[in-house]
Amino acid sequence: MRAALAARAGTLAIVAVILALLPFQLSNYHQGLAARVGVYFIAILGLNVLTGYTGQISIGHGAFMAIGGYTTAIMSADHHTNLIATLPLAFAITFACSLLVGLPALRFSGVYLALATFALAVSVPQLPLKFSKFTGGSNGIRTVDAPGNLWLYGVTWACGALLFAGAWLLLRGRIGRAFRAVRDSEIAATSSGVELPVYKTLAFGVSAAYAGVAGSLFVLATNGFAQPNEFGILLSLKILIGAAVAGLGSLWGVLVGAVFIGMLPEISSSVPLVGSSHGQDVVFGLLVILVMLLLPTGVAGMLGRLVRGRART
Amino acid sequence: MGMKRRIFASTVAIVAVAGIAATAAFGAHQADPGITSSSIKIGGTFPLTGPASLYKTIPLAEKAYFDYINAHGGVHGRKIDFTILDDGYDPSKTVPLVQQLVQQDKVFAVMGSLGTAPGLATWGYLNKNKVPQVLLATGDSYWGFCSVKKCGGTTYPWTIGWQPDYPGEGKIYGRYIATTMPNAKVGVLYQNDAYGKNYYAGLRVGLGAKKTDIVDAESYDVTNPSLTQQILALKSKGANTFVIFGTPSPTITALVTATKVGWSPTTFVNNVSANRLFLLAAAANGASVNGAISTTYVESPSTQPNLTGMKFGKAIINQYAPALAKSFASGDTNIVYGLGSAWTFVYALERAGKNPTRASLMKALHSMNTSKNPFLYPGIKLQTSAKDHFPIEQEIMIKWSGGGGGDWHPFGKLLSGVR
């Protein structure tokens, strides 16, 4: 047990060192790309808390990213707030909004909750169009200045590390146990004294707040430009795919899930095989199918099997 | 274990790529990026997929024109290597793609990129890095104004558009109504964003004292599938003149809906949505389009096939983009737009010197004066100066006749000073 913990800590340390040294080895363009992977890392991390640990499916995390993103853009454009200061604000505002949404929505569960969040993903990006004086409408709104790629990389991965530690602390203790109990059987959880509405709403709120921070950073990675098109339903689906690839109910695969959705479109667009402009979608789709077939429990599941396999021999 | 190895492998790969990129960057010191003695690399972002993909014939036509130029020796012996990237009209995709063009592909200039929001999301980055962002395919006035005067505290001297400005076009309709339609009761339908509002503002300026002829103005959001409410409101206010400032799909819906609710006003359609193919689509769905009025600044392959420019265009499309030939023959003016825009780039590049730099390209674009662009409506000039960064400022009015198999026909004099 202690050896396993040491191995985990060791892996974590290696990943952290690599991430810390990486930007100095990368071209400016790749720094931007790696920062974008960090954005997905945070969003997938958040979704994993909700879907992986608490068993509630959300197809609406793009909507929470929109709320976080617009918080940053509006605070910077209208109030000249420091960009870093907008991140905790995005966290708080998204958390509050998700509670408002979550209170009624969490009366649903399973596929019905998924549909309710789907509605969120479709409707929230319309709001900026309705309140265009405030949000710039379809012309978007820009932060006062746009950060460079190295800044983005640093801030994104620092947030990623902080939030990863936060998620780990939250999930390893009493609250995490309650989340898992809700996931495994709501009836059993209730009868053991877990208050369903409280824990479900908490998981929803934390998860959404993570997405809010991811949305903030997403806008900063778009040259500080927020516009409704950025937060379409595809973004929500991408994050869900990333979480599935990462493996639900484990924090270890999240990095791979983030790399998968952050880098694959870049790589597959240069695959000459398919040629047409839809080529990259085809490659992406095929890989998702392959992952689902070969790694139904995601990368985390595969890692788990590897570790267990080694332990047995 | 597997993850560690994977991370290690990808780190090695990334470091290797970065190393190569760094070497390449140090190698090319003397000239601007993207240019060698035999080639010049440019690129742009376009909606090949997604809601605005109706515009995808534009970059394909541009590529066809560059291929034609390359087959005839290129520009000062340099072949134009044009990269088309698909951003699906989503600015968050445009940003990394433009960074890819600048930092990976090391383009000399970003040319023809389509869309106002994608343009706004990237012009800060491009201007900071002094990369030309030229002949943007959007008619918002930012590109012309903000490259000369400060916008939000900054000027954007490396940016320039191409087509006539939207408010200017709105003014044309306003003046036309004010001078020729004394009994007009105007109902306006505009898209609820800067694009639609700028057009609407232009219309009001053009109407002048006759502004009071506007009996109602309704707006719609671009994603709203139904326009029935707005159309019924306009009809019930007694409007007999219907001015639409929309993007293609909503415009088609508006035309169809108006006919369905039994309203038959004199209709104005803005240029961006007045491609013949769009009107044919509306007519095929039951819209009555006879008598509709719009403007154009390019030649029409369907009504002016005998003009030199259209014969030239047909030859280029047939040889270098045969997939577009049918669309071209049936009057897809977006193809003509692409050809005309690419012609302008080549024209500027020729005049940017034997060994062009990014600065000399901008200078050439800021000192154009020619009526030789074969794809523009006869008589229309490309004209810019140090203070005037609006390349095209002339349009001709067109009217639709012939119903569901009909076409646009120009009328009146060429109008100047469209701004």
What does this structure look like?
The complex is a heterodimer of chains A (313) and B (419). Chain A is mainly alpha-helical. Chain A is built from 15 helices and two strands. Chain A has helices at 2-21, 28-54, 61-79, 83-105, 111-123, 127-130, 132-135, 149-172, 174-184, 186-191, 196-221, 233-246, 254-268, 279-294, 298-312, and strands spanning 141-142, 225-226. Chain A has a two-stranded antiparallel ribbon. The longest helix of chain A has 27 residues, at 28-54. Chain A is globular and about 55 Å long. The relative contact order of chain A is 0.17. Chain B is α/β, with parallel strands linked by helices and 419 residues long. In chain B, 42% of the residues lie in helices and 17% in strands. Chain B is globular, with a radius of gyration of 23 Å. Chains A and B meet through helix 1, helix 2, helix 13 and helix 15 of A and helix 1, helix 3 and helix 4 of B.
**Main β-sheet, spatial strand arrangement of chain B:** 2-1-3-4-5
Order of helices and strands of chain B: HEHEHEHEHEHEHEHEHEHEHHHHEEEE
Shape of chain A: globular
Global geometry of chain B: globular
Low-confidence stretches of chain A: none
Oligomer: heterodimer
Task: Kindly list the characteristics that best describe this protein.
heterodimer, A: 313 residues, mainly alpha, ABC transporter involved in vitamin B12 uptake, BtuC, two-stranded antiparallel ribbon, 15 helices, B: 419 residues, alpha/beta, Rossmann fold, 2 domains, four-stranded parallel beta sheet, 42% helix
